[in-house]
Amino acid sequence: MKPPLLLIGQGSHDDNGSAEFGRFVHRLRCRLDRTAADVSGGYLARATPRLSDSIASLVARGHHRMVALPLSLAGDTRIGAEIPAAMALEQQRHPMLTCDYGRPLGADPRVLALLAERLADAAVEVPSLRLVPAGGPAEEEPERIETGETAVVLVGDGSTSPAVNADVHRVSRLFWETHAHEYMTVETAFASLTPPGVPGGIERCRRLGARRVIVVPYLLFSGGLLEKVWAQAMAYAAGHPELDVRCAEAIGDCEGLADVVIERYEEALAAAR
What we know:
The protein is 44% helix and 15% strand. It is α/β, with parallel strands linked by helices. The protein has 2 domains: 5-106 and 253-272, Rossmann fold; 109-247, Rossmann fold (3-Layer(aba) Sandwich). Helix 1 (15-32) links the parallel strand 1 (5-9) and strand 2 (39-43). Helix 4 (109-123) crosses helix 5. The longest helix has 18 residues, at 15-32. It is elongated. Pfam families: CbiX (PF01903).
């Protein structure tokens, strides 16, 4: 039997994000059950299940070696720095425990492809519904906005670390070159802690001449942070009715994300042989 996969999240006080994290753990459990590998997940702080409880449960089921994988995107050094300390504490509690580490998800090409799918969903033309008086002339459909007149704002979490923020800028460039080069531009913004914020990113696109801006959250799961990004975008849109502002979904619990995680798991197993 293979060692279990332990997914480690940063944790937040948001129930929606925790619920989606739990659904993703269940998806992986169903996938890896075919190869006789157990899957569990836990948070470092602020949410349940806690990492310590998940490890205790795995040890109680007879597991003493596991593969720990930080469930984080490119540049998220907070979780990467906290995991070794947290695991060292768990090894004091469970002296027989050994752990191999998988790489964070990072700017994997399949993660960028998932962002492209969310962008494409948000870019779909939605027909407007209008009330037409009986016997009156039908209103003309609004002029079509072309892809070249549409800009993208990739929104990261935001950090006090310049290196972490710079990595999100790098992902924006990679995303533009690999999946969004037909759009006017891909700008970078942040949900908190560092400029530009979401309104600043959209404003830059407007000044560049964009007629439509699509906000793409560089986030794994839905929850409070995603809602914050959407709220900032819609508040800006309310003050600029001439600009078509749209918001994409987060990457979310999906098979494509599971593919990346399972590859990281198998990679860690191979490196430990």
